[in-house]
Design brief:
By secondary structure, the protein is an alpha+beta fold. Helices cover about 30% and strands about 25% of the residues. A six-stranded antiparallel β-sheet has the order 5-10-6-7-8-9. A two-stranded antiparallel ribbon has the order 1-2.
């Protein structure tokens, strides 16, 4: 009985929740990862690779969020994938994500994420801050936050870039921060974030 109630609640949420609109897909009754891949014209292997948070692809639950590729929500696709790495990424300075799966530093983490969606980034943060994209300040000329979803955010001291993260919207950014915290979501208004922000690069 409890399972039936939970399933009905999940279906109800699928029908009514505003979160269902956008780049994310939520599992419906009868879905499998293979069916979801077919529905979104993706290969099964690609769908699995975009969902490292799913321990067993053969066992998914109604209402569970799945990362998919979309044609008109690229920034949100990137953000969804970055968030899905929160529980499965370990920070290690100098680690190259391509050679050590799910072990990365801040810049190899962002490089891995954007390249999943066809956007090439250099390997280290200072190169990402100067070799690709268009510079974006914190504020626009009207005093509003100029950042947009998917912008790379760069941080450091005395104008020297030492860290990179991704702006995810609504005043928050995500980053593979350090060996104590790994991947975290932070406010752009936090003292460390605000005081050490240098500029952003728009690569989408």
């Amino acid at each position: 009985m409890k399972k039936i109630v939970c399933m009905m609640l999940a279906i109800f949420m699928l029908l009514l929740s505003p979160q269902m609109v956008g780049a994310e897909y939520y599992v419906k009754p009868g879905d499998s990862m293979w069916k979801i891949a077919q529905k979104h014209q993706m290969s099964y292997r690609d769908l699995i690779s975009l969902n490292p948070q799913i321990a067993n692809p053969s066992k998914i639950d109604v209402g569970q969020r799945i990362n998919v590729r979309t044609s008109n929500h690229l920034a949100q696709d990137i953000i969804d994938y970055a968030v899905s790495l929160e529980e499965v990424t370990t920070y290690q300075l100098g680690a190259d994500y391509s050679r050590s799966p799910r072990v990365a530093d801040c810049s190899s983490w962002t490089k891995h994420i954007y390249e999943k969606f066809g956007i090439w980034l250099p390997r280290v943060s200072w190169q990402q801050a100067s070799w690709v994209g268009t510079p974006v300040p914190f504020y626009d000329k009207n005093g509003n936050v100029a950042l947009k979803k998917g912008d790379l955010m760069f941080f450091g001291d005395n104008g020297k870039v030492s860290h990179v993260g991704i702006y995810i919207g609504d005043g928050y950014w995500i980053s593979n921060l350090n060996s104590k915290k790994d991947v975290v979501i932070l406010s752009i208004w936090g003292s460390w974030s605000y005081n050490r922000f240098l500029w952003a690069q728009r690569v989408i």
